[in-house]
Amino acid sequence: MRRRDVLRGAAAAAVIVPSPAIRSAYAQTAKTLVIGGSVPLTGAAAETGLNVNNGYITAATYLNDVLGGVEIAGEKYRIELKLFDDASDPARATTLIQRQLDDGTDFFLGSFGSNIVLPTAAITERAKKPMVQTGGGADAIFTRGFKYVFGMFPRATRQFASAAALFKTLKPTPQTYSVIYTNDAFSKTAGEGVRLACDAAGLQRLETYELPAKVTDVSSVLASIRSKTPDILVCVMHDQDSLLIARQMVATNTNVKLLFQGLGPQLASFREALGKYSDGLCCSTYWDESVPYKDKFFGDSKKFADYYRSKFTRPIAYHVAGAAACIETYVMAMQAAKSIKPESVRDALAAANFETFYARIKFTPEGDGDALLLGGMIGQVQKGKLETVYPAEARSAEAIYPTPTWDKKA
């Protein structure tokens, strides 16, 4: 983590305000649109939490500083983010959100991790205040009848369809798979999604392994993997656990033809930590700066990425773009509703069909992302870089299969 990013993240944990250089006439006359929330700038989820935080900052800063604010129902507004560090702690996050509700905040952005998004969304739901978020995909968030929470991804059990489709295209065709997941709200349901998608694709499931929420050792699981030797091993868990498993696979020379890790390889820090052994790993990815979408704010993904890099040295990742799209989606919903009343904005979010630089934004009736429009692409690490290998129309490289064994990776 670079110091510049730490400093910017720490500043964001309080309040985002226009910089002195651009306190122009618009800043004096524009109304303020407050959007609250919490983000994990410290603790177990901080690596991705910082990406989410930086995405929120990027969008708000651009809309305020470059575009001079946004127009809603004939009024000019500047966006003020009130984001606080929840330290990856659900109890702290719920306290922070309740405090903001008590202070009169009407609109919220989500934290990272279903274990935080779910309880905080329950609080904003009871208050009938919208939450747009890019950090929680557990089915439980979208199956409890909530009407005010909207997510930038399909629910967890619907997220693996693209990967299973990729597996069917590989040559020679994989025949068997095993899946490992951790005992947390997102990973358990994601693991179920893996089983549903891979079974439907005709792969034979050899074994399913459930690990505790806090993983320290997987030696017994890897011994079973070595004895059964699936063609594909799928790991659905957060990035730190993915890194631990990969390292222990290297140490024990546990090889499969393809290792798919849902979260981890997307992050430059993960690839750097694993070094040459990251090559060949596959993962889900929901955005790349080469995607062809356009919007009326940034213009396109490349311009968004360029602006982000002018503000941050931290490598860009899809959670950055998804977070920025949350704010764009709020603005477009408010413009469609011609209102900043929470109920009207909620109805406009439910009816959303907006194109952003990130994707076309459309939600299911339950609030998760449309499985096709907001579904994932598949990335594979090749020579240290994450290449898109599926679907074909977004492909930047052909998938490598089988991948080299650990001892053959240069």
TrEMBL record:
What CDD domains does the database record attribute to this sequence?
A: PBP1_ABC_ligand_binding-like
Q: Which domain of life is it from?
A: Bacteria
Residue ranges constituting the Leucine-binding protein domain according to the UniProt record: 34-369
Give the GO biological process terms: amino acid transport
User: Known Pfam families for this protein?
Assistant: Peripla_BP_6
UniProt entry keywords in alphabetical sequence: Amino-acid transport, Signal, Transport
Question: Which family is this protein grouped under?
Answer: Belongs to the leucine-binding protein family.
Give the protein's recorded name: Amino acid/amide ABC transporter substrate-binding protein, HAAT family
Source organism per UniProt: Enhydrobacter aerosaccus
